[in-house]
Design goal:
With about 475 residues, the protein is of the alpha/beta class. The protein is built from 15 helices and 14 strands. Keywords: Glycoprotein, Glycosidase, Hydrolase, Membrane, Signal, Transmembrane, Transmembrane helix.
């Protein structure tokens, strides 16, 4: 009888051990198991939208956007040159080609002239670092379908097989990270003249050959090879997210990819998803609502007012001034957004001096006033109730009033600031505290006796509260 009891105890222990092993292997989360990894986020928007946005992105505030590709060769009109020439038969593009290129010249012929012989990614990264930006996003593939890396799905339409004969994306990713910045990639879902895509389009999205054989494997290759921490999705608007199978990709990205813990994505994942789904909202190009938003957002804008790609015929008046750039930054950050500043390099790999000058000037301003921008949060007021062109941010016990103009009388009345909460006020970049006084429910701040013409583009008051 005792032997039988001992036998039962041994068998019970064995069964218990087997049960625990089963739980560990098959039921608990395990990074090596695709089945269990997929349980963290499910392929639906409710689950995906519940993922917390990695903190680094909100704290960064400033990024650089780069539109570079075969469209940088004609550099006429915009980066949509191919579509306007061959898609809509735009007269200006047709006339440009007739004047400057031989008959039967094709868009593919431009790729041979995309040479990038002056491309120095370390120099680019140094400019971006000097601008005060914290992350960089490069067009890995625009709507033309040409990839800036040797994509296995690009069928020789890439920067290694034709044109520069160089992995442009990989070289920049290395340089940007070496400079201490985060690297991201823009990727267009659709391609204007890809026959697989146009077949699916003609079939009213009932087929998905383009997604299955081109777009999805291309995206996964991009993530696995270069590990971008921003995926800036675009080119989604013609088809629903179910055609792109966006939620399935995002589940893979969040659960299994090499950047699953730090990657951030925007909201362009299918027709109707903009400003509704995704990590942060990019909504429309140059989105700058001017009021506080409930969801984290980004203002992706251009230094060239008319184009994302480089334009050879652009005039000085076509570019934002440094003051306009700082103004846009203040408006964006005060309302809870990030600013993604776009430049368009030349076909031979140069950042044009006008872009470099604007970026370095912004960096000089941020070197003095950056504490009013980085890692801040919106205050209870976004702009002042009395003073024009004053925007607010806050951090810890400080409120920052970003005044875009020097007050003509050297006195600035802040209607949003109750003097009772004020301890001291400083002008960033200057020594000592400023004199202030109560005026009803407002605070009147006296600026130093300086000449506004010799000063910076905007002026930040650091209001230390009690």
């Amino acid at each position: 009888m005792l032997n039988y009891i001992k036998y039962c105890i041994i068998i019970s222990r064995y069964i218990f051990v087997v049960f625990i092993v089963f739980i560990i292997i098959y039921c608990l989360p395990n990074s090596s198991s695709k089945v269990t990894a997929g349980r963290k986020y499910a392929p639906n928007w409710d689950s995906i939208d519940a993922r917390p946005l990695p903190h680094w992105y909100d704290e960064a505030k400033v990024g650089i956007f780069i539109h570079w590709g075969v469209f940088s060769v004609p550099s006429f009109g915009s980066e949509w040159f191919w579509w306007r020439w061959r898609g809509t038969h735009d007269k200006a593009c047709n006339d440009f080609m007739a004047r400057n290129y031989k008959p039967r010249f094709t868009y593919a012929d431009f790729a041979h002239q995309f040479t990038a012989e002056f491309y120095e990614p370390n120099h680019w990264a140094e400019i971006f670092k000097a601008s005060g930006a914290k992350y960089v996003v490069l067009t890995a593939k625009h709507h033309e379908g040409y990839t800036l890396w040797p994509s296995k799905t690009s069928f020789n339409w890439n920067s290694v097989d034709i044109g520069p004969n160089r992995d442009l994306l990989g070289d920049l990713a290395t340089a940007v990270r070496k400079a201490g910045l985060r690297f991201g990639a823009y990727h267009s879902w659709f391609e204007w003249f890809n026959p697989l895509y146009n077949d699916d389009k003609n079939n009213k999205w009932s087929t998905r050959r383009f997604v299955q054989f081109k777009a999805r494997p291309e995206l996964e290759e991009l993530v696995n090879t270069y590990k971008p921490e921003v995926i800036w999705s675009d080119g989604d608007w013609e088809a629903p997210d179910t055609y792109w199978n966006s939620t399935d990709f995002l589940v893979w990205l969040y659960n299994e990819s090499p950047v699953k813990d730090t990657v951030v994505v925007n909201d362009r994942w299918g027709a109707g998803t903009g400003c509704k789904h995704g990590g942060y909202f990019s909504c429309d190009d140059r989105y700058n609502p001017g009021v506080l938003q409930r969801h984290k957002w980004e203002n992706a804008m251009t230094l060239d007012k008319s184009s994302w790609g480089f334009r050879r015929d652009a005039q000085l008046s076509d570019y934002l001034t440094t003051h306009q750039l700082v103004t846009t930054l203040a408006q964006t950050v005060s309302c809870g957004g990030n600013l993604l500043i776009n430049i368009g390099p030349t076909h031979d790999g140069r950042v044009a001096p006008i872009f470099e000058e604007r970026l370095r000037a912004l960096g000089a301003w941020l070197a003095v006033n950056g504490e009013s921008i980085y890692a801040t949060t919106p205050w209870k007021h976004q702009n002042d109730t009395i003073a024009k062109n004053v925007w607010y941010t806050q951090k810890a016990q400080s409120v920052y009033a970003i005044a875009l103009d020097w007050p003509q009388t050297n006195q600035l009345t802040l209607g949003a600031v109750d003097t009772k909460i004020v301890d001291t006020i400083q002008l960033l970049g200057a020594k000592g505290h400023l004199v202030f006084k109560e005026s009803g429910a407002s605070t009147v701040v006296t600026f130093p006796q300086l000449s506004p013409g010799s000063l910076s583009q905007a002026f930040v008051l650091k209001i230390n509260t009690k």
